[in-house]
From TrEMBL:
It comes from Flavobacterium terrigena. Coiled coil: none annotated. Pfam families: Biotin_lipoyl. Keywords: Biotin. InterPro entries: Biotin_BS, Biotin_Carboxyl_Carrier/Decarb, Biotin_lipoyl, Single_hybrid_motif. Residues 79-161 form the Lipoyl-binding domain. This is Biotin-requiring enzyme. It comes from the Bacteria.
Length: 161
């Protein structure tokens, strides 16, 4: 059985292909990233302008017109049919102690707006100072610890709104 592919062009046109239909396409590489394609006796000049292989997103110029193309393979289509979002961002609303230790400094206050990677507090563990940074931008809802508090692994330290 031929593997299915879903090709989205400029996010408004969708084409379904199979592995067999793609391999049946008459395409010849004339130089790196440049192709001469013959489809149903119609010639096309194509150039791959940019390529992000990991996310399968490409910018392709065909006969002088540029198109944004994304390709979904068999696994992507299965995940989509299951209603699962690949790479969806997980929103972190709590900061918990990654290890037991002692709070040396709290760098934020309740109600303060913070940005991603901004220092929240300093935790001393095994004679090392560990700066815990914000995993996201947001507003501090509560702080459950103070300077000089001993904390256990998994203990709630800071909550975001």
């Amino acid at each position: 059985m031929s593997k299915p592919y879903k090709i989205s062009v400029n996010e408004n046109q969708v084409f379904n292909f199979t592995e067999n239909s793609v391999t049946a396409l008459d395409a010849v590489s004339v130089e790196e990233n440049h192709f001469h394609i013959l489809n149903e006796n119609t010639p096309f000049q194509a150039e791959v302008v940019t390529a992000d292989f990991n996310s399968r997103k490409y910018s392709v110029k065909v006969n002088g017109n540029t198109y944004d193309v994304s390709i979904a393979n068999e696994l992507d289509l299965l995940i989509e049919s299951m209603g699962i979002s690949v790479g969806a961002n997980k929103v972190v609303n709590e900061i918990k102690a990654p290890m037991p230790g002692l709070i040396l400094e709290v760098c934020v206050a309740v109600g303060q707006e913070v940005t991603e990677n901004e220092p929240l507090l300093i935790l001393e563990a095994m004679k090392m100072e560990n700066t815990l940074v914000s995993p996201r931008s947001g507003k501090i809802k509560s702080i459950a610890v103070e300077k000089s508090n001993a904390v256990e692994k998994g203990q709630l330290l800071i909550e975001f709104e």
